[in-house]
Structures are given as structure tokens and as C-alpha cells.
């Protein structure tokens, strides 16, 4: 790889952005960005951000006592290809406490930001993991009233994107409009 390919690889592989190895379980998160008619949306900029494996964000507002990981910043970017596909290599984020209510914990999740042809077309959503026991207790996840829509926020295990002996794969397709749209944050 040379030039822009190296930059693109570093931006979408959150495990290779530093000189050392990040802590935690490596995962692959991939999928397609589609319109309401299941047509792929090429050249869509996707940004992700997430907590580290201990459930801590590298942000001054995060004062959780969990350790920071000097080899993981938790931010990445990718641009969809001609078939609307994207792919990130990252670590599975940890759960973390937050002060929303008594004994409140956020389930493991990854934030997604999608940019259309202009900054004003930015959409933000969150991806969750299958089987997470904290989902029934999370007010953000449950703020989507429709159960079918809410379940579209949960990724699915993806054997095809799993890297043998390295990283489990999760698929998270994002539909931007229509009846089957992925719920977005207001």
C-alpha cells in the first residue's frame, strides 16, 4: 500500500494507529450503507468513536476510574466503496457506568456518524452487540419505541468477516431512509 491507501488503512484499523498493541478483544465491524430501496450508497464518509476495552473514552469529560489505553484512541474513519461497503478493525468496547439513574451502565456500543454530500446531512447512530444483558436497562437504546427498529441497532455476528485466530466479525448495515431505516439520534 502506498499514499492514500496507507492513510485509509490507518483510519479504519483502530488497532494499528499506535506503536503498541491495544488491550482487548479485536473485532471487525463491517456492513453496507443503503438507501430506502436497498441501493448502495458509495463514497459515504463514516466516522466511529467508542470507549476502550475497559469502558473509558479518551476524552476530558470521561472521568470514569477505568484505565486509559495509550495504544487506543477509539476513533476511526472509512469511506464506502462502490457497493456501499465499509469495514473497521477495532476492539470490543467495554461497558461503563454513567450518572443517568441509580446503578446505570451503558451497554457496549460504537457510535457511527455518516456524512452525505454536505455537512448538514450528518446522521448519528449507535451500534450494539447481540446478547448484551444491559440492553433492556439502557434508556438510550430503549428510546427507540418500535422494537423492530430498535433491533436494527444490534449488529449480527458475521462469520464471513471474522479473521481466523484474530478477530470476530460483526455486521451492521445502515439504511438511511424509509420504513426500514436505521434509527438515528435526534
Could you characterize what this model shows?
By secondary structure, the protein is mainly β. The protein is 8% helix and 27% strand. The model has no long low-confidence stretch (mean pLDDT 91). The strands form three sheets. Strands 1, 4, 9, 10 and 11 form a five-stranded mixed sheet that branches. Strands 3-2-7-8 form a four-stranded antiparallel sheet. It starts with a helix and ends in an 11-residue tail after the last strand. It has two helices and eleven strands. The chain has one domain: Protocatechuate 3,4-Dioxygenase, subunit A (Sandwich). Strand 7 and strand 8 form a beta hairpin.
* Number of structurally distinct domains: 1
Report how far apart the termini are. 39 Å
Unreliable segments of 5+ consecutive residues:
none
Mean pLDDT across the residues is 91
Briefly summarize what is shown:
The chain is mainly beta.
Topology:
Layout: H1 4-12, E1 26-34, E2 45-49, E3 75-79, E4 85-91, E5 96-97, E6 105-106, E7 109-115, E8 123-128, H2 147-151, E9 156-157, E10 168-171, E11 174-175
Parallel strand pairs: 1-10, 1-11
Antiparallel strand pairs: 1-4, 2-3, 2-7, 5-6, 7-8, 9-10
Task: Give short descriptive properties of this protein.
186 residues, 11 strands, 5-stranded mixed β-sheet, mainly beta, globular
Amino acid at each position: 500500500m502506498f499514499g492514500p491507501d496507507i492513510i485509509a488503512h490507518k483510519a479504519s484499523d483502530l488497532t494499528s494507529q499506535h506503536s503498541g498493541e491495544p488491550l482487548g478483544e479485536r473485532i471487525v465491524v463491517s456492513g453496507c450503507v443503503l438507501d430506502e430501496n436497498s441501493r448502495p450508497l458509495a463514497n459515504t464518509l463514516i466516522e466511529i468513536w467508542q470507549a476502550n476495552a475497559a469502558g473509558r473514552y479518551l476524552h476530558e469529560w470521561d472521568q470514569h476510574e477505568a484505565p486509559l489505553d495509550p495504544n487506543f484512541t477509539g476513533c476511526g474513519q472509512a469511506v464506502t466503496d462502490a457497493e456501499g461497503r465499509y469495514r473497521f478493525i477495532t476492539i470490543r468496547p467495554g461497558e461503563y457506568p454513567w450518572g443517568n439513574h441509580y446503578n446505570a451502565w451503558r451497554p457496549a456500543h460504537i457510535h457511527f456518524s455518516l456524512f452525505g454530500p454536505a455537512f448538514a446531512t450528518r446522521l448519528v447512530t449507535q451500534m450494539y452487540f447481540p446478547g448484551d444483558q444491559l440492553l433492556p436497562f439502557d434508556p438510550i437504546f430503549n428510546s427507540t419505541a418500535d422494537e423492530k427498529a430498535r433491533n436494527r441497532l444490534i449488529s449480527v455476528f458475521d462469520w464471513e468477516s471474522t479473521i481466523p485466530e484474530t478477530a470476530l466479525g460483526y455486521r451492521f448495515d445502515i439504511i438511511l431512509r424509509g420504513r426500514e431505516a436505521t434509527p438515528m439520534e435526534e
